[in-house]
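Collaborator request, handled under Task 6.
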Amino acid sequence: MKKKYEFVKGDALSWKGRTIRRIVAIRDFDDVKEGDLGGYIESESNLSQEDTCWIYDNAKVYGDAGVHGCAKVYGCAKVRDCAVVFGNAKVYGDAEVYDCADVYDNAEVYGGAEVYDCAKVYGDAKVRDGAAIYDGAEVYDNAEAYGRTNVYGDAKVHGDAKVHGDAEVYGDAKVHGDAEVHGDAKVYGDAEVYGGAEVYDDAKVYGDAEVYGDTKIYGKAKVCGRAEVCGNAEIRGKTVIRGGWRVSL
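Structure tokens returned to the collaborator:
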């Protein structure tokens, strides 16, 4: 294996109790030219000498974290602990990926987003602008999470779904298809929101509830228990749909 980078002598930082050192390319590859300065790493285990992965700008990768494949980490992004970024994934801006999180395939994590605590972001998913994905949650396919949203627990957001604003998706909840959860809405428990459904404002969908079709749940409405809301139904205000009820319009 022919090495692609080495450490820059005299360019080291004391960071979080660790010493990290800047790298420099020693051969051309991908969009990197020989002599280009890279970001900072703690050891060669943080950035593979193989393939075209690279750490740019002032990005930092340290601890037992690794960047592999064709992945790129740039801007002021940080990857640490046991996190891994690989495939064609990109982590940039002020994003942080840490604990044992994985970001891979063509996924992008950027802005002030955080992915941590065994969470996974993959496929063509985008997590950005302050969103937090953690505690084993997964965001994948073409899904997007952005704003101050939190996706955690074993929750899954996938398909072309969007979760944004101050929304929360957690527990074993699933949001997928073209569904959208935003505002201060919460989807949790074993609830499922899919199709073209939209849950927003202060609405809550939880328990074993299913919301799908072109349904809209908003205001302070609640759908819970084993309730099912579908079709073009709109549940709003302080309405509560619970138990085994089924609402379809």
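The cover message to the collaborator said: "The mean pLDDT is 97. The CA atoms of residues 79 and 128 lie 15 Å apart. Please let us know whether this matches your experimental observations."
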